[in-house]
Design brief:
By secondary structure, the protein is an alpha+beta fold. The chain has a single domain, classed as Nuclear Transport Factor 2, Chain: A, CATH 3.10.450.50. It is built from three helices and six strands; from the N terminus they run H-H-E-E-H-E-E-E-E. It has a six-stranded mixed β-sheet with strand order 2-1-6-5-4-3.
Length: 148
């Protein structure tokens, strides 16, 4: 892989993660299904004791968990390493803010959640472009508040 090809691949992965954040925050699950995840993707969230496998199962699970909440996700300072011409890893510092109404199924866990941590990811280059293969979300700090 030439240096321009390597830099282009890194930029494509950055754009992929931007679509991840756009899709989750706008609840655009078809964008997620079509342009973000590999068919055999996995999402691991130790904080929830959850590991979900398979693109459709994963997207449906996140859509259900997100229900009628509002979220704002930020990803910062990516460290992206190409491990081959068709695979890569990434580490993103993250912040998320989640606002849940009182009728949200997980409201008792917090009406407002402020989290800080990291996404550790694996990417794969498919015929349709780069896709997320695995995401591990770990939070270093979480603040939970009930809203009145």
């Amino acid at each position: 892989m030439t240096e321009p090809e390597r830099l282009l691949a890194i930029e494509e992965i950055r754009q992929l993660k931007a679509k991840y954040f756009l899709g989750i925050d706008t609840h655009d699950w078809e964008l997620w299904r079509r342009e973000v995840w590999a068919p055999d993707a996995r999402l691991i969230v130790p904080e929830l004791n959850s590991e979900v496998a398979g693109r459709d199962t994963l997207v449906d699970w996140v859509a259900e968990q997100s229900a009628n909440q509002v979220s704002v996700h930020h990803g910062h300072m990516p460290v992206i390493e190409l491990t081959s011409d068709t695979t890569a890893t990434g580490l993103w510092a993250m912040e998320d803010r989640i606002y849940r109404p009182k009728d949200h199924p997980s409201y008792d866990d917090g009406g407002f959640i402020l989290g800080f941590g990291h996404y550790r990811e694996e990417y794969v280059l498919l015929d349709v472009g780069w896709r997320i293969l695995t995401t591990l979300l770990t939070r270093l700090r979480v603040k939970r508040h009930r809203l009145s």
